[in-house]
């Protein structure tokens, strides 16, 4: 038998590490905001995710998303528009599909859950490549073209640290000069993988070889033993030529053990490497997380007349789905509903003014209207800990003098479920789910048990159509109107 191979660095060719399957990683899934967009006119479908509270990470992911949508618009000749579909579209499934960034490009484009309608256009898919301690890594891949002709295919990896708010690209895990230092060990690993028995020290590498390694560092992902990256086909070196391999013909994933990588990584990379296989420790998201209604089709579901004994159950259902709502509450219930109102704001919902005891404001004097609004604002702010900025007139009744006396904008609705009529569950769900369009405001009441019971179906139905459920202020891009009456976002 030949003597054992003398390994020094132990850099070696390995199988590509498998991504995190979010369907089987509930702690990770609960910490992120998944986004799924589809516009058949622009021939694009996209899946990605955001990490609430990590601004640099989210900014990088948003740039990637916008780049994909812009490319789709250029290719299709149709500008991307936030779009929803009839019930049954299945768009409530929003998590990254594990392994999708490693599929053949044709499979990405033609899979109905990943690619554009008809299999031709642009697909943006994602994989979580790291989730340990406070670190999360996301690979986003943008594929354009058709199964017959792929026009472009790019992938970018971004790492975020929820503890510091920092983010880096995959290449940013490495210190400057890491490719040069690793070059000889990589050639050694590749020639061993090709079957070489030579013990001769490998060469330092020419410019083309070093450039190929630098490009490979942009694919870096963590492994149980260290860090790995993939060298694209076409890699060459004199040591390979001597074996009759002019250039590699398949991607080769090379693993650098932690002991070696520790001397070559950036400060961010050192912290992530040190985190190793520690359990993922990023808190579950609060509310909807990242939201941009210029990209995602948004709808605001609003509950009137509470809080009531049914409101906590409604909050449970919203929270379980990462959805938020706006509660137009009555001042007379503020003190008794303090715990529920506090919970609303803690979980990312919004509390706004629905008067003290629900009178028709057009029947009142200006002084009485002001008293109804002002006393309610004081009570709700004291109970919820959140500023009250808009109001909803009971029964939707108002006039110019009402608005002037209230001193704040009125938020109405363009979708009325008439749940006070106590329709059947199927009718109520249809009224809440089918009419909305991006920018809509839906009216329901959290004082009716039938509405509370229907809430899971209403939320799921809106998600299935492709909507993102947001608060009223999010619907108005974070800047609520200060005057006038509004039935939907402009």
TrEMBL record:
Top-level taxon: Bacteria
Gene3D superfamilies in alphabetical order: Glycoside hydrolase/deacetylase
The keyword Hydrolase belongs to this UniProt entry's keyword annotation: yes
PROSITE patterns listed in its UniProt record: NODB
Sections of the chain in a coiled coil: none
Domain NodB homology span(s) in chain numbering: 297-470
PANTHER family: CHITIN DEACETYLASE 1-RELATED (PTHR10587:SF133), GLYCOSYL TRANSFERASE-RELATED (PTHR10587)
Name assigned to this protein: NodB homology domain-containing protein
Organism listed in the record: Microbacterium awajiense
């Amino acid at each position: 038998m030949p003597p054992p191979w003398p390994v020094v660095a132990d850099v070696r060719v390995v199988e590509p590490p498998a991504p995190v399957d979010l369907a089987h990683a509930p702690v990770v899934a609960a910490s992120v905001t998944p986004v799924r967009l589809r516009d058949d006119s622009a021939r694009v479908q996209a899946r990605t995710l955001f990490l609430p509270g990590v601004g640099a990470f989210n900014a990088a992911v948003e740039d990637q998303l916008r780049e994909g949508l812009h490319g789709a618009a250029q290719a299709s000749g149709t500008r991307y528009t936030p779009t929803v579909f009839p019930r049954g579209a299945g768009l409530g499934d929003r998590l990254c599909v594990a392994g999708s960034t490693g599929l053949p490009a044709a499979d990405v484009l033609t899979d109905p859950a990943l690619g554009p309608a008809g299999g031709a256009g642009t697909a943006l898919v994602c994989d979580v490549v790291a989730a340990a301690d406070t670190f999360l890594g996301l690979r986003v891949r943008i594929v354009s073209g058709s199964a017959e002709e792929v026009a472009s295919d790019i992938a970018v990896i971004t790492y975020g640290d929820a503890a510091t708010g920092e983010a880096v690209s995959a290449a940013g895990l490495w210190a400057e000069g890491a490719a040069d230092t690793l070059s000889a060990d990589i050639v050694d690993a590749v020639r061993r993988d090709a079957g070489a028995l030579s013990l001769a020290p490998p060469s330092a590498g020419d410019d083309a070889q070093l450039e190929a390694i630098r490009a490979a560092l942009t694919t870096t992902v963590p492994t149980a033993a260290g860090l790995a990256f993939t060298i694209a086909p076409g890699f060459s070196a004199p040591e390979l030529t001597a074996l009759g391999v002019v250039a590699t013909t398949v991607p080769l994933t090379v693993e650098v053990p932690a002991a070696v990588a520790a001397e070559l990584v950036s400060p961010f990379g050192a912290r992530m490497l040190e985190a190793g296989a520690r359990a993922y420790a990023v808190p579950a998201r609060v509310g909807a997380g990242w939201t941009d209604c210029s990209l995602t089709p948004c709808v605001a579901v609003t509950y009137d007349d509470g809080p009531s004994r049914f409101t906590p159950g409604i909050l449970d259902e919203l929270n379980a789905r990462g959805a938020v709502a706006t509660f137009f509450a009555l001042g007379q219930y503020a003190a008794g509903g303090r715990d529920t109102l506090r919970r609303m704001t803690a979980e990312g919902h919004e509390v706004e003014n629905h008067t003290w005891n629900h009178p028709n404001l057009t029947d009142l004097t200006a002084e009485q209207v002001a008293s109804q609004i002002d006393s309610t604002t004081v009570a709700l702010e004291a109970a919820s800990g959140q500023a009250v900025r808009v109001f909803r007139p009971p029964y939707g009744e108002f006039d110019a003098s009402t608005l002037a006396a209230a001193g704040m904008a009125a938020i109405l609705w363009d979708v009325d479920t008439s749940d006070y009529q106590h329709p059947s569950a199927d009718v109520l769900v249809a009224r809440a789910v089918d009419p909305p369009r991006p920018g809509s405001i839906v009216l329901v009441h959290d004082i009716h048990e039938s509405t509370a019971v229907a809430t899971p179906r209403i939320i799921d139905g809106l998600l299935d159509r492709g909507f993102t459920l947001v608060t009223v202020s999010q619907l108005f891009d974070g800047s609520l109107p200060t005057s006038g009456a509004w039935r939907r976002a402009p």
